[in-house]
Amino acid sequence: MSCIVTSLTFIFLLASIGAQAISFLTSYMVVNRYAPGLHDGIFQRCGGLAYFQNSINAVGSFMSKALDGSVKTFTNCYWWNSDLFKNDTIPLQLCVVFSLASVGIIGLIGIFFLISLVERFKTKSLNLFLGVLTTLNTLILVSIIIVYTFFYAKEAKITPDHKSPILYSWSYWLLYAACTGYLLTTILFCCNSSKSYDD
Questions:
Q1: What's in the keyword line of the UniProt record (predicted)?
Q2: What percent of the chain clears pLDDT 70, i.e. is strictly above it?
Q3: Could you say which of 3.40.190.10, 1.20.140.150, 3.40.220.10, 3.30.70.260 is the CATH number of the domain covering 3-49+77-196?
């Protein structure tokens, strides 16, 4: 694989993982102009700066004070807080499961990508395997987008009409960017000329 293709593969892969990580860790995916409670993120449940007044306590750790007066720490805002996950709707729980699967796949991609770098992308079967992994991860992200778009909003009884418009946040659109990046990475892995490989 040429240096240019190798560099592009590395750039697209890192950009895609970065976009996905930001999307997973930010406060919300879907909001509604007349229902600000509809703001649950994939891993984060406490909402964005529009709904919380951020403050720093005496110890110096990050804390958020909700409009209702309840205090949320940085840690207990995430899905791994058992009370949060237990009370999540089924679509949100599905998104968490899909997301954990995606994180596992990213781990595999990282391991085999490093092996490929050492071998200078000369092993065709390894490149194809990486292409399969990036494709699988893309399908998982698409599944998350579908769940948020067609099931999460529906269960929250929110319909996209002129009276109650759904507003998709930048966290939501970042998943589309990640999907595009993974697809481009897959093409670079799987559609190289035969000269890129050793016989």
A1: Membrane, Signal, Transmembrane, Transmembrane helix
A2: 58
A3: 1.20.140.150
What pTM does this model have? 0.74
Residue pLDDT, tens place only, 142-179: 999 898 888 876 665 555 554 555 666 778 888 999 99
User: What are the residue boundaries of the structural domains of the chain, listed by start?
Assistant: 3-49+77-196
Nearest one of 68, 1, 3, 73 to 36, comparing CA atoms: 68
pLDDT at 173: 86
